[in-house]
Amino acid sequence: MVSIVIPAHEEEKYIGVSIKKILSQKGVIFIDKYTDPANLNINQVICEITVVVSKGEDKTEEVVGRYSKVRLIAGNFSGVSEARNIGARSSRGDVFLFLDADTLLNDGFIKKLDSFKNTVNLIGTSKLLPDIGTFKAKAFMYFNNIIHIVSKTSMALIFCHKDVYYKVGGFDERMPAGEDLKFIGIALKKHAKFKYIGNISAVTSMRRFETHGYLKIAIEWILGYFFKPPGHYDVVR
Q1: What's the CATH architecture for 2-127+153-205?
Q2: Which phi-psi region, left, alpha or beta, contains residue 24 (left: φ > 0; alpha: ψ -120 to 50)?
Q3: How many of the other CB atoms lie within 10 Å of CB of 34?
Q4: Which of 10, 81, 100, 129 can bridge 171 by disulfide, Cβ–Cβ 3.0-4.6 Å?
Q5: CA nearest 153: which of 88, 224, 82?
Q6: What is the pLDDT of residue 207?
Q7: Does the pLDDT of residue 88 top 90, yes or no?
């Protein structure tokens, strides 16, 4: 079974679209928190969705509440790491997918992850496409995907077997940025194998790059990878 965990803070514009895209996946049975997966056919592709909403000023919580198949957890959480950890601890799947609220899974993604349910040392990410068609966005994401393969890093989504998550001990809740890099790094040190999925993709928002600049963010990533992650995260709504 696949468990999708989506942290969301003031994501009213994106979260509904993201959930609809997930629920449109063909050949997948989506279960709510009341359904015991042990009672279902083990040969079926089963998925649960948990959205952890850090309360804000918009209607993110209300939008998520419209979907009966989605487990909603809402509270005044400290940040994205705490939200992910809360979602993971309530998840029952074999494979965890930590997905950004503004990222859309293309069809076949969940089926692919389900095929990894017996690979207990798995961690990885996938090919990403930009949500806008400019040459700059396409070129940036093309090279970004290559960098993820070489450096074993991620953006917008991370998947791992549940055993890897618990061996790592979850995401570092003290870090405002770079927590994903640390999570993967510890997993690899504990002998997890990095997997890049190139034949199935997801579409992610380029809003942050368009607002703050592609070069600026690229430099921040390089410095964070080789030296120290930034002490803050520039949020764009």
Answers
A1: Alpha-Beta Complex (3.90)
A2: alpha
A3: 6
A4: 81
A5: 224
A6: 95
A7: yes
Q: How far is CA 227 from CA 158, 178, 191, 219, 221, in A?
A: 22, 11, 23, 12, 10
pLDDT in tens, 183-209: 999 999 999 999 999 999 999 999 999
Sign of CA dihedral 34, 38, 43, 49: positive
For helices 135-151 and 214-226, what crossing angle results, to 10°? 10
The token pair that represents 45 in the structure block: 């592709």
For residue 233, pLDDT over 70 is answered with no
**Amino acid (1-letter code) at residue 42:** I
Contacts of 117 (CB under 8 A, 6+ apart): 1, 2, 93, 94, 95, 161
pLDDT at residue 234 tops 80: no
Q: Which secondary structure element, helix H or strand E, spans residue 126, and what is its range? A: strand 122-130
* Distance separating alpha carbons of residues 227 and 229, to the nearest angstrom: 7
Task: Look up residue 114 and give its DSSP letter.
Answer: H
Q: Where in the chain are the domains?
A: 2-127+153-205
* pLDDT tens, residue by residue, 132-180: 999 999 999 999 999 999 999 999 999 999 999 999 999 999 998 899 9
- Single out the residue of 78, 52, 83, 86 nearest to residue 176, CA to CA: 78
pLDDT grade for 38, boundaries at 50, 70 and 90: confident
Largest CA distance in the chain: 51
pTM for the model: 0.96
